[in-house]
């Protein structure tokens, strides 16, 4: 298996990307990792560690986070993101991972890798942390801010297949994000989407409210990209604020510091369960090849986990499963 990795994307690039790739290459000898970026920068970070299954591909251009996505991929056809998506399309790599510009990756995935026949719009599908530690797949979270009922219907189908094949959920529970659980509640988009999704051959449990998500209200959550993005960023903000305030309180006095020492193992375990780094990245579901968007703040561990996720994406033949299900549904 060959997985291409953009070393120039993300807040901690290229160091975190190269280190994460090294860890993954040392873990999975059956997977060749192809690092895309300036060769001299990669070589300077390898520091004598060069597994046989890690190779370098010289790519001198990359797209920054500030660049307008579509214009950038048209102007920089030799950038790491475009090259990676092209490698997947042409079979030079079975999967591609980038922590770079999300919009550019989405545009390149759609325009270069291409969509699965029958899929109107791909969806960005990260894992949302839950208190039971299992997590929940959410799609879409920003690939398409506006959506139609047929798009949410396809998200539900793709999410269910991915959750079962890659995440290991047995008969995954699919929910539709709404302001109430009652059927017939919500906007016309939600009402029409509900009617479509319940006809799919998946385990649809109906509407789900945001307040029930952390308790694991469902395994796959379907929403439009605008709502999903707000949900994700609000949750990240709340988690950051809570952990920050907790740290302040636990270091306020000698007594609270003593309590912190006792609570430390449990708090570390909880923080790990709620950490995006443990999930690695978000697949762009609906493309003809596996493309994974790693978090922009990914460290080496997150990159390692993104490789693990991409391997499963390929091994479980998710794209074939989605294509076959779409053909069956007509």
What would you give as the CATH superfamily of the largest domain?
A: Isopropylmalate Dehydrogenase
Low-confidence stretches: none
- Percent helix among the residues? 40-55%
Give the spatial strand order of the biggest sheet.
Answer: 3-2-1-4-12-11-5
How many domains make up the coordinates?
2
Average pLDDT across residues?
Answer: 90
Topology-level CATH name of the largest domain: Isopropylmalate Dehydrogenase
Subcellular location: Cytoplasm
Organism: Kroppenstedtia eburnea
GO molecular function, one term: phosphate:acyl-[acyl carrier protein] acyltransferase activity
EC number: 2.3.1.274
Would you write up a description of this structure?
It is a single chain. With 330 residues, the chain is α/β, with parallel strands linked by helices. The protein folds into two domains: 1-119 and 286-330, Isopropylmalate Dehydrogenase; 120-277, Isopropylmalate Dehydrogenase. The protein is 46% helix and 15% strand. The protein is built from eleven helices and twelve strands. The strands form two sheets. The protein has a seven-stranded mixed beta sheet with strand order 3-2-1-4-12-11-5, sandwiched between helices. It has a five-stranded mixed beta sheet with strand order 6-7-10-8-9, sandwiched between helices. Strand 11 (281-285) and strand 12 (291-294) form a beta hairpin. The two termini are 32 Å apart. 46% of the residues are buried. The model has no long low-confidence stretch (mean pLDDT 90). Pathway: Lipid metabolism; phospholipid metabolism. Homodimer. Probably interacts with PlsY. One of its GO terms (cellular component) is cytoplasm. It is an enzyme of class 2 (transferase).
